[in-house]
Amino acid sequence: MDKVWERLQPGRREQVRQPQEAREAMEQRVATPGVTPGARADTAPVAEPAVDAGVASYTSPEIRRVLANMRVLVAIFAIAEVLSLSSPLSVASRGGAMAYAAFGYAAYAGGLCWIEFRGHRLLWPRLIAWVDVAWILTFAWLAAMHSSLLMLLFFPVLFAAVSFGFLSGLLVSLIAAALTAAQIMVRVQDGAAILPEAMLPPLLILVFGPVLAALACVGMRINEQMTIAERLLALLDPRLGVARMADTLLRTLAPRFAADRGWLLIWLPGSEARLFRVGADGACAELHGELRATLIDALGRLPATVAAVHQRTAGPRRWCFAGPLGLELARRRASGAARVPMQQLAELLEARSLLALPICRRSPHPNWLVLDSRRRRYRSRDLELLSAVMEPLAPLVENAGLLECLADEAMATERARIGRDLHDTAIQPYLGLKYGIEALARKAAPDNPLRADILSLQEVTVGELHNLRELVSGMRSGTSAADNALAPALQRQARRFTELFGLDVVVGCDAGLSIGRRLAAAIFPIVGEALTNIRRHTAATAAQITVRDHPQTCELQIRNAHDPAAAPPAFMPRSIAERVHALHGSVRVELQQAGFTDLIISIPKGPAARASAP
Length: 614
Description:
Subcellular location: Cell membrane
Membrane topology: Multi-pass membrane protein
Pfam families: HisKA_3
Keywords: Cell membrane, Kinase, Membrane, Transferase, Transmembrane, Transmembrane helix, Two-component regulatory system
Strand content: 5-15%
Structural class: alpha+beta
Number of strands: 16
InterPro entries: GAF-like_dom_sf, HATPase_C_sf, Sensor_HK_TwoCompSys, Sig_transdc_His_kin_sub3_dim/P
Helix content: 55-70%
Largest sheet: 9 strands, antiparallel
């Protein structure tokens, strides 16, 4: 316990000193052996809006609105510049065209600003920068290539870089400089401009345009990193457990990076590997079984210090964009160590664009965050951004696992104490009752008419005492492994109802039924309550119990007969419903046409079953 406490991050130790909040948070954790919900619906984080593949890859609506406002300012500056120019041009011939062009651009900028503030999407957002270049070059041509108007070409460079990355900004700057130089050469041939002074604006655009694009991309990356990190830090709380942490991370990061699927492998010291998955619908689940083992094995082959991207592109771009791209996180340099395992993982997941990032690298086991997208091709900038976001968040994931270990140890200690108390108090009266019935059975003569009832009561007492001892033993040892304890317990309960009350109970369970003892201990009193209701409130002389094992849930069907001519009114047993809802399950009553009443109960498998999953 002390070693685990020492490993906690200093900034989070105070959170462990809140036992009541921690206990309430730990009680909210739900896990199942097949596919387990990662968080409750009422406390799940709000998923980020999905990123459209045709729109800016990492531009937020706020940034787009700022750019739209800047375009309006550019239009106002152009109008003021056009109106203030003293040009030898004829006002009737070209001055009117300049005014029309300036006011037309102002209307265009105002329309784009209105669209952005309304929250609508543009049809062809990548054309906006080129339209800006065309408008500005038109102004400059009509104004005899005035240098102040040519300097406005830096705005489309900034817009392209902020919206679509450095390469887009670089391309706009190069083409804008080339078109400006071409216009100037035409002016020089006409004698309206003089070299070399006239070539200064295109040279400035050629030199400072890429610099502006690079600075804009760096600023956007830092802004995006801070935005994502601040949102996650506000949502993440290690006291809520690993499942809730994984749910928050996946449901926040997947939309941000336009991922259709995401996986998070968390394998902390002293605990088993846990694999979580989020789908395109935003539902987070914990995986178990063969799929979990296969994915953990595939992720384990990846180098623990290299983040990688893999592309699978069909068609003419296949050889240009396909293949893996690795980044060694410690030295921030390219690496090909993940090429083969990354390709195998992409084939296993049938992924088109796959990103894999190691997290919690101080752990002896690999921990991975994997994103798959069919709408976006991941690049090295995505690796760098995601790595920068996860670097300060990795200790929170570790703390969540360590807090779970602390909580499990505390619960194990408390269970052992309660088990000892039950053994010393609750079991002793049952032992006295057992010894008294045994003495009474020995005194009863073989021809005594009550001897059969006494022997039957003795058998029931011995069985109940055995069940109580098993429960106390399991509580003291903390064992929760799945076994076949439920079926024999239901069989004994059925025999008891048959012998004591004359209710013929038939129990049927799926072959290979394996239910954890904790879940079985929760199901057993529910079945007993249902049989008691049948005995007290119906005229049925027989009942049937069917237990079905599903990957996510355990389903109970308790059936009794009723008069087909006079079906009973709809009734929901309140005590059973309360017990089932406390286990996050569901219950319903169905009246069959054949004269049967079915009580159908569905309970998600709890932590006990999860611990037994392969």
